[in-house]
Amino acid sequence: MTDVTTHASPSTPPTGASATGPAEPGGRRRPLRRVHPAWWVAAVSFLTIVGAAAFASAPGLLVEPLNADLGWSRATVGLGVSVQLALYGLTAPFAAALMDRFGMRPVVATALGVIATGALLTMWMTEPWQFVLCWGVLVGLGSGCMALAFTATVTSRWFVARRGLVSGILTAAGASGQLVFLPLMSWLVEQRGWQSVSVTVAITAALVVPLVLLWLRDHPADLGLAPYGGTYVPKPAPVHGAAVRTLRVLGRAARTGPFWLLAGAFAICGASTNGLVKTHFVPAAHDHGMPITAAASLLAVIGLFDVVGTIASGWFTDRWSPRVLLGVYYTLRGISLLFLPGLMAPQVEPPMIFFIVFYGLDWVATVPPTLALCREIYGEDAAIVFGWVLASHQVGAGVVAYAGGLVRDATGSYDLVWYGAGLLCAAAAAMSLVVRSRARTAPLPR
């Protein structure tokens, strides 16, 4: 896409920038049209999230191998995944504030290094606490900086127009990574063992670091430009006291009803996606005789349609009420989960393919409208508020990642978990529909 690059002062463009192109008849100068740098930042952010998505694709593939190789129960493995998912969410709001303090580039590069270290160390683990420490704590902390709060920061700084669309594209990046890595890692598990997954995650995260250091830019003002579709805004000074500010934003948001409605609905979103389907779909399908590679391929197909659904949701969010969109998304998701237990079979049947396509379109379609509501209600603090809303998403995911393993160990089946998640989605739909607009909250004192 192209845009007329807007500078701080049209008559005095920054050094090295050309504000006008060739002369037109009559002596007027044509504006120089080129791809706005915001789209390059979005492209680098997309590739970064795709590369980091390798670690998010792995937990569901580790349940059976760790059970067979080390004798760990599904609940034990689920505990490590639960810690990773919860820290992923709880780190996100602090990461958004750290990006305000130090910039996106150093925060994201450091996070990728932590992910690579944590994943690599799991190769030598022999006890469950080591899995919790390496995969749960280290990968959880690193991945939290790559969470959707990163998407919120990029879109808030670099875009005024097309925010919903770009939010959808960057959200879909994680699904794209899932699509790329799941089939590869499921093959590695069967051919080379679960340790090969740890190596793949570590290498992938490390390879993304140079992209971040070379191409990710912190703010349009660094290039003397306006954000895409907006007017020039000077780069704000670094915000000190990131942790204090993050907690103060939480305190203020927690005194508002919309925050609890959004956080509650998003907790159910996480429970019904990352916590349940991403963690337990492969072992649940394997319980019914489906090969791990076939089940992992179905999850990859979810990733394919998630890209379509999330980008479409971003487009819808620019045009229709985000509350209504959320109500529709959660309702459809709940209905599909209620049908899932009856679709499990040793082979991939057409009804299961229909579920995978349908569920994929809805997977994280909830993100663009939820982010839009945070911007609408909380203004300049939206990225941090969304970080806390995302924390609830991941806490919900972590609870179900662990609880799903407990239910399977106790009953020998995942059926009760699927039905319970379907009913919870109905509650999420109701909470989303009753969120009401109010005067935009003034930003907190820095």
From TrEMBL:
PROSITE patterns: MFS (PS50850). Residues 1-18 have a biased composition (Polar residues). Keywords: Membrane, Transmembrane, Transmembrane helix. It comes from the Bacteria. GO terms for molecular function: transmembrane transporter activity. Residues 1-29 are annotated as: Disordered. Pfam families: MFS_1. It is found in: Cell membrane. It is a multi-pass membrane protein. GO terms for cellular component: plasma membrane. The chain crosses the membrane at residues 38-57, 77-99, 106-124, 130-152, 164-188, 194-216, 258-277, 289-312, 324-346, 352-373, 385-404, 416-435. Residues 37-440 form the Major facilitator superfamily (MFS) profile domain. This is MFS transporter.
